[in-house]
Amino acid sequence: MDKATQKADVLIEALPYILGFRRKVVVIKLGGSVMDEPERMDAILADIVFMEHVGMWPVVVHGGGPRISAAMKEEGIEPRWVGGLRYTDEKTLRVAARVLVEEIGQEIIDRLERSGGKGVSMSGRNSGFLIAEKKKASDGVDLGLVGEVVGVDRELCERLCLGGVIPVVAPIGRDRKGSLYNVNGDSAASAVAACMRAEKLVFISDVPGILSDPKDENTLLSSATRSEINHLIEEERIAGGMLPKVRAGLDALQAGVRKVHIVSGLMKHALLLEIFTRKGVGTEIVPD
Q1: Domain count, the chain
Q2: CATH at 225
Q3: Which helix (H) or strand (E) holds 260?
Q4: Which of 135, 136, 155, 285 has its CA 20 to 30 A from that of 274?
């Protein structure tokens, strides 16, 4: 009986969040090693289907860097990196678009359907959903066909969500002349969240969240403001692979997204625990 009561308590705790987030957009960025672990991916996507069924409007944005690199290697294309970003020529773009849209995107849609949900692939390749511009060269170094998202077909996205369909967004953008661009997944998720006026932007990561001491997992920050996060960046306590996610999250907050979350995809149901419980299990970043 005690276990049954505990389960009921969890449901009651979740109720105000379910009511408060009804028809609110939540953008979830999938990335990291969890994308290569079928069981973990199924658990995350089951959480996303749950969110949709209780009235939230989840929008999934996914990356796929390692898969793109592997596919390029198979075709004899040598990856080239400039300032941490993949230089993209025509051949690289063709491989990236195929892997992101036809392979990874379709896999996510298939897994959503097995969990009882419905998904549809969205990008700048198969529609004008992601509007992009060529990313400006940094320090005079051109990145090739790398772009940044400047717009989203918000009406289409809302219609899909209203119809119970989960948009699955691959970070391939299209400019107004029809040219395609490869877009960084974290920055694409940030831009989609901003354009959709999302309630939340959630990054699924390989780590539990932001640590005030990167070497000590016991220093997990449950909540932090933009100013506090900027201070950690200045002190180089946020660095490496976490830095692009955090900066993308800060950009989303600046653009009006209410909260940014970073949670571990290695913990089962971390997404639901972060969103539907008072304390959460990852790090939430809020405006000052």
Answers
A1: 1
A2: 3.40.1160.10
A3: strand 259-264
A4: 155
Q: Which helix (H) or strand (E) holds 130?
A: strand 130-134
State both tokens at 285: 């970043």
Residue 128, Cβ density class (10 Å: 0-12 exposed, 13-18 middle, ≥19 buried): middle
Count of other CB atoms within 10 angstroms of residue 82: 16
Tally of CA atoms within 13 A in the half-sphere of 97 that contains its CB = 21
Task: Report the pLDDT value the prediction gives residue 4, as an integer from 0 to 100.
Answer: 66
Give the number of other CB atoms < 10 A from CB of residue 271: 28
Q: How far apart are CA 186 and CA 200, in angstroms?
A: 14
Q: Which domain holds residue 274?
A: 2-286
pLDDT of residue 251: 96
Query: 145-160 pLDDT, tens per residue?
Result: 999 999 999 999 999 9
User: What's the token pair of residue 115?
Assistant: 């969990």
What is the value of pTM for the model shown?
Answer: 0.93
Bridge-partner residues for 163, per DSSP?
Answer: none
